[in-house]
Recover the amino acids of this structure.
């Protein structure tokens, strides 16, 4: 076995209806139902212009050598509709990992999205494309194509652990990872939370949102409040 330079062709996948269920949920609402510990680094942000605000798909993981995209090319060959190619790049920012040609091919194949812990290039074209593309930024410096790397193994992307087959949910706020084994149970909780959150937005717009919890929290934590001017 060539540990460090290998490709697994199969993944354990979540149920299709579970994946579909997340397509109406903001990433922030789901993240709140996961202890607020599921969001990948805010340095990884949306760089394209998808017509839908929400990206949902199943993780096809790539562990790339920093600045090298050989295994990303192989992942493009393997991926299809409903997949999100998500790439560990060890946080390297020196080389772009993909450009217009690769992203155009991913869009042709109906891939649900691309998430890179690194930079891309050809931002002028990619910024106008419909496929969701997340990355840390852009640089004209191109990638190497030497390997090694791995596909469909556990990775860390943006500081978050990702298993092949996990659900990747993204929107303009960023990207969160939903473990495959928790996805079905979490979905129902997230739907209820999202409905409640929407109700709070409506109340905030009308000025009827309950704010009494703020003073209650301060009192419980023994915060001192003075009806006076500081230093006076």
């Amino acid at each position: 076995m060539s540990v460090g330079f290998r490709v697994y062709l199969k993944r354990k996948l979540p149920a299709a209806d579970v994946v579909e269920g997340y397509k109406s949920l903001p990433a922030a609402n789901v993240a709140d139902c996961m202890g607020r510990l599921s969001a990948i680094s805010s340095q990884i942000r949306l760089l394209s212009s998808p017509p839908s605000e929400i990206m949902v798909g199943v993780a096809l993981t790539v562990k790339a050598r920093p600045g090298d995209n050989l295994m990303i090319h192989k992942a493009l060959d393997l991926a299809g509709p409903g997949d999100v190619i998500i790439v560990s790049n060890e946080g390297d920012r020196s080389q772009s990992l993909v450009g217009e040609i690769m992203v155009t091919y991913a869009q042709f194949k109906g891939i649900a999205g691309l998430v890179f812990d690194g930079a891309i290039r050809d931002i002028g074209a990619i910024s106008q494309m419909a496929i969701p593309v997340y990355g840390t930024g852009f640089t004209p410096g191109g990638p190497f194509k030497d390997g090694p790397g791995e596909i469909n193994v556990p990775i860390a992307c943006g500081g978050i652990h990702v298993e092949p087959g996990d659900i990747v949910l993204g929107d303009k706020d960023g990207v969160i990872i939903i473990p495959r084994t928790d996805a079905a149970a979490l979905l129902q909780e997230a739907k209820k939370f999202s409905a409640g959150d929407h109700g709070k937005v409506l109340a905030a717009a009308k000025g009827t949102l309950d704010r009494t919890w703020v003073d209650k929290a301060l009192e419980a934590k023994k915060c001192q409040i003075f009806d006076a001017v500081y230093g006076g």
Summary: The mean pLDDT is 97. The two ends are 73 Å apart (CA to CA). Residues 5-193 form a domain with the Glucose Oxidase; domain 1 fold (CATH 3.50.30.40). DSSP finds seven helices and 13 strands in the chain.
